[in-house]
Design goal:
Layout: H1 3-18, E1 44-54, E2 59-64, E3 75-80, E4 95-102, E5 108-115
Antiparallel strand pairs: 1-2, 1-4, 2-3, 4-5
Length: 116
């Protein structure tokens, strides 16, 4: 390898190592909290299985498939439920369609439930 080729390779390697890392917006690692540059999104519909319901805390533990729009993998998680959602008829073992929407705090919550 000649000197010129070595310098080109060195500059290319250094430029690549100095590039800023890229992260998925609203990914699983930040539990749905958006990056500051994100704009508000519309509701996101997803199929979910209810594992448990905590009416007093207004939380449902659900298992859901991957959510492409949020770059979330399939997972099981506790999710807050909006105040206007009636939890009285929600039971463990049910399969639902849930509508997720980002709250004012930046965290996604369930704002609608649709029974199968």
């Amino acid at each position: 390898m000649n000197g010129k080729t070595f310098k080109i390779l060195l500059v290319t390697a250094l430029a690549g190592s100095l590039a800023a890392p890229v992260f998925a917006d609203g990914g699983h690692g930040n539990h749905g909290k958006p990056e500051k540059h994100q704009t508000k999104q519309k509701e996101i519909m997803v199929h979910a299985k209810v594992n448990s319901v905590d009416v007093d805390a207004r939380k449902i533990n659900v298992s859901h498939g991957a959510i492409k729009q949020l770059s979330w993998p399939a997972m099981t998680m506790d999710m807050k439920v909006a105040d206007n959602v009636d939890l009285k008829s929600v039971k463990a073992g049910q399969e639902l369609m849930i509508a997720l929407k980002r709250g004012d705090d930046g965290i996604y919550l369930i704002n609608k439930l649709m029974m199968h």
